[in-house]
Specification:
A hairpin with a 5-residue loop joins strand 6 and strand 7. Helix 3 runs antiparallel to helix 4. With 439 residues, the protein is an alpha+beta fold. The longest helix has 70 residues. The protein has three domains: 202 residues, Arp2/3 complex 21 kDa subunit ARPC3 (Orthogonal Bundle), CATH 1.10.1760; 67 residues; 156 residues, Heat Shock Protein 90. The protein has 14 helices and seven strands.
Amino acid sequence: MSNPIRVNSVVGGFIVYEFVAELALHFFVMMMIPLSCFILYRRCMDTKTTVLFAIANFAALFLTMSFPANITGNIHFDLKFIPLFIVFFYIRPAIGILFVVFIILFKSLVNPSEVLFLLLNYGIVSVIFIIMSTFYNRFSFMQKIIFGACFYIPITLTRYLAIVRSGDTDEILNLIWFSIMSAITLTMVIYLIELNNIQLSMMVQLQNSDKMNAISQLAASVAHEIRNPMTSVRGFLQLIKSDNNLTEEQGMFISISLEELKRTDQIINDFLSLARPETKSNELISLTKTIEEVFSFMKPYANISNVLIECDIEQDLFILGNSHEMKQVLINITKNGIEAMQSGGSLTIKAYQSDGEGVVDIIDQGIGLSEQQLTQLGQPYYSTKTKGTGLGLMISFDIIKRMNGEYKIKSKERCGTTFSLLFPLAPAKEYRDISTKIS
């Protein structure tokens, strides 16, 4: 006769083994998500890639819901919240809503009596996800990991209440194991995706750095050689233009030639700015005064373009850096903002102090930029203007970096663009000293 205790222990051990095996299977299904992210985004970053990544998440969602982990009773465990989380926070909330609709339809087919509960439950989840998606990208790497780990706490509590209500208290230990496994899996998926994003960002920076080095080496050797014959050509064209015997058409051609020479000269200046060694100057700059000077300098150009420039500047804003380069940055960005408003409009420059930083916001009402354009902005030879080279913004971003500053760009097509420049404020003692000297 067989021992009942031994039989029960063997059966129990087999059930636990089966449950662990199912959890492991779900874990490997979820690893499809970071793997697909790694493969797809290494090739290119476009709409097609995003769609394929969404399909990979949908495949993971379908598989985990189709083969849920189960030991006894009617309580099933799956990892559907992981692809749902990734879609909301790493793709688009709109696609996340489609996933929610699919989950509700799928579960309603299995148990039609739960439709109202599902609508309420996933409606709340969707609202929370949509709200949190606006803040998620601002989180640091570690904050995202912690957020992912804490995400399963309310889910575990609701499932615990469901188990207690059903009377299957023997399942609580399994719930704990499953919740721990789910939290670990989600944090691993987030970690791997973020790691991939960091590597992609570093690759882009290295590519841009290579381009910058190539341009810098070329600039010094070529720019001066081009400028010398250009000066002669400009001089002869101006002499010819002063001739009264020219026809109207000839005069127009010469004017166009002089205008193109002027544009070429500006491109050469941009090249020379790249070739110039990095400025080690760390002088005290009055951000207030610099912006006022740029405002006065750019106002005539804005008037010609039918653009109204407005300023809202706090007093006594001081930063450390090179005043000439700072002015160059502000002129470049302001000029771009004016040129983006082909039909006229308003450009606002704000300067204020925030969290120990001097912040400059340059806000235009221009044509705006798409997400694709935003990712390429500041790269060599990329420009949204027909006759642009992209060097102006590239130089500006390089200067900002050398001054220990940072920039943020918010833009939407047909809704204008906001450039935010952030620089560490100079120590209080230094700008008190300069204020005393000025007074």
